[in-house]
Amino acid sequence: MTPTSRTETPPRTGVAEIETLLRRPLLDLVFEAAAVHREHHDAGAMQCSQLLSIKTGGCPEDCGYCSQSAHHSAPVAREPLLDVDEVVRSARRAKENGADRFCMGAAWREVREGPEFDRVCEMVRSVKELGLETCVTLGMLDEAQAARLKESGLDYYNHNLDTGRSHYDKVIGTRTYDDRLRTLRAVRDAGLNVCCGGILGLGETETARAELLAELANLDPAPESVPINALVKVEGTPLSAEDDLDWSELVRTVAAARILMPKAVLRLSAGRTAMTEEGQALCFLAGANSIFVGDELLTTPNPTPAGDAALLSKLGLRTIRDGG
Ligand code: SAM
Ligand code: DTB
Ligand code: SF4
């Protein structure tokens, strides 16, 4: 190979190509994804994050799936930004519960400079001091704000693209796809790890799902962490009457994501309470290697710690904290 034939930019994967991938016979797709997974990761290890809603409800955005939007009537009580002490107590419990990363979520449209942002930086610093990895999701931000979070000890910033571009405005009207991409660029430029994924079951077509995977895989560099959420239907939200997502659709998407982003940690995120153990096991085989642990996500339930411990034990999976 001549030096000039080398390229630094990875080849872009097209939407049509990804649709073909998603349509492959399910077991062939899982088999290939499992091989890719085992080439790049320890397939016996599970990364475990615990979530805490540090500011709940009353969000000015209108995301059609979300219990915390002020535009909807979900039964979620508004809570102001928590105190640092309360967050630290919760992070300590998460660590005792086996989590290796603590993720703090705020129902904000965007970060604004001021005492509340100062407090979030303090939360990050204090959680990091406990020896946990740190992640926050605070809505849109700019590079200076991302840099301040980095200085405070932040490891990951979560900001999801949620769905494909063609489906986006059917789900969210108060911000654009390009707003999301701008924040992701600021996060990347500040040297933070990017946690970015989406939600399945929003009434999206298979093409929109392929578009989402193409956007994620073509981010340069690809995200380090990719959450695949299944919609948690919350009464009072516009998407609460969507059809149930078939388990096989979730498995296909996880498998395709693993093939397209071999090095990323793939997170089987919201929606596990509606899944069987067998369905989850197939997702793990297809390359999902991260879960949320703890009784609650942000405002909705998660499988119990005892149930998760039993599942991991049945499958012979170790958590990172157990030396995975
Ligand atoms: N407000 C910030 C934002 O939207 O970026 C951070 C918090 S928001 C709750 C974080 C992510 O949670 C959303 O981007 C979405 O992907 C996911 N999410 C929210 N509600 C969900 C639901 N009902 N089911 C599945 N995922 C959900
Ligand atoms: C992500 O992708 N999933 C998490 C986290 N990032 C912040 C949020 C899931 C929320 C599920 C609905 C709820 O509990 O309100
Ligand atoms: Fe607000 Fe985030 Fe919920 Fe959208 S997903 S309504 S931005 S909390």
Q: What is the highest CATH level, the class?
A: Alpha Beta
Q: How do the SSEs run, as a string of H and E?
A: HHEHEHEHEHHEEHEHEHEHE
C-alpha end-to-end distance:
39 Å
**Coarse morphology:** globular
Write the layout of secondary structure elements.
Elements lengths: L14 H8 L3 H15 L4 E11 L28 H13 L4 E6 L8 H15 L3 E5 L5 H9 L4 E3 L6 H4 L8 H13 L3 E3 L2 E3 L5 H12 L7 E6 L16 H14 L4 E4 L8 H9 L4 E4 L11 H11 L2 E2 L5
Parallel strand pairs: 1-2, 1-9, 1-10, 2-3, 3-4, 4-5, 6-7, 7-8, 8-9
Helix pairs in contact: 1-8, 2-9, 3-4, 5-7, 8-9, 9-10
The structure holds S-adenosylmethionine, 6-(5-methyl-2-OXO-imidazolidin-4-yl)-hexanoic acid and iron/sulfur cluster.
Iron/sulfur cluster (SF4) binds next to loops.
Could you characterize what this model shows?
This protein is α/β, with parallel strands linked by helices and 324 residues long. It has one domain (26-322): Aldolase class I (TIM Barrel), CATH 3.20.20.70. The chain contains eleven helices and ten strands. The protein has helices at 15-22, 26-40, 84-96, 115-129, 143-151, 165-168, 177-189, 206-217, 247-260, 277-285, 305-315; strands at 45-55, 101-106, 133-137, 156-158, 193-195, 198-200, 225-230, 265-268, 290-293, 318-319. Strands 1, 2, 3, 4, 5, 6, 7, 8, 9 and 10 form a ten-stranded parallel sheet that branches. Helix 3 (84-96) runs parallel beside helix 4. The longest helix is centred in the first third of the chain and has 15 residues, at 26-40. It starts with 14 loop residues before the first helix and ends in a 5-residue tail after the last strand. Mean pLDDT is 95; it is low at 1-7. 6-(5-methyl-2-OXO-imidazolidin-4-yl)-hexanoic acid (DTB) binds next to strand 2 and strand 7.
